[in-house]
Design a protein that fits this description.
Order of helices and strands: HEEEH
Number of helices: 2
Structural class: alpha+beta
Subcellular location: Cytoplasm, Nucleoid
Distance between the termini: 26 Å
Shape: rod-shaped
GO molecular function, one term: DNA binding
Mean pLDDT: 85
Strand order of the largest sheet: 1-2-3
CATH architecture of one domain: 2-Layer Sandwich
Protein name: Nucleoid-associated protein RB2654_10179
CATH superfamily of one domain: Nucleoid-associated protein YbaB-like domain
CATH class of one domain: Alpha Beta
Organism: Maritimibacter alkaliphilus HTCC2654
Subunit structure: Homodimer.
Radius of gyration: 21 Å
Helix content: 40-55%
Strand content: 15-25%
CATH topology of one domain: Ybab, Chain: A
Low-confidence stretches: 115-119
Length: 119
């Protein structure tokens, strides 16, 4: 028997908390689809737009960087902008997760303790 689960009342509370967590996680997943972040490189010459889930949704490339002799530089700038967008997306996703854990009064950095449940 686990400590702290003294009786059915606590179990019901835990189940309710789990459901609330799942609802909030679902809402957060939907929000992450609508939140966008912009990564950039080359002082803004290349911009990559991504959802907070890390899905690339747009690229904005300044035509001045298209020099046939600089093909590798251009590719590096594009990759750097995409990576920057992915890092920002990951950070934003973590911030959203943190909001939920705070709202539910869970310890920070707990992640999703109910990831294996449901379905």
């Amino acid at each position: 028997m686990l400590k702290g689960l003294g009786g059915l009342g606590d179990m019901t509370k835990m189940m309710k908390a789990a459901q609330e967590m799942q609802t909030k996680m679902g809402e957060m997943q939907e929000r992450l689809d609508t939140i966008t972040v912009v990564g950039e490189s080359g002082a803004g010459l290349v911009k990559a737009t991504s959802t907070a889930k890390g899905e690339l949704v747009g690229l904005d490339i300044d035509p001045s960087i298209f020099d046939p002799n600089e093909k590798e530089v251009v590719e590096d700038l594009i990759l750097a902008a995409i990576k920057d967008a992915q890092v920002k997306a990951s950070e934003r996703s973590s911030q959203e997760m943190q909001k939920i854990t705070e709202e539910l009064g869970l310890p920070a950095g707990m992640g999703n303790p109910f990831g294996g449940m449901g379905g």
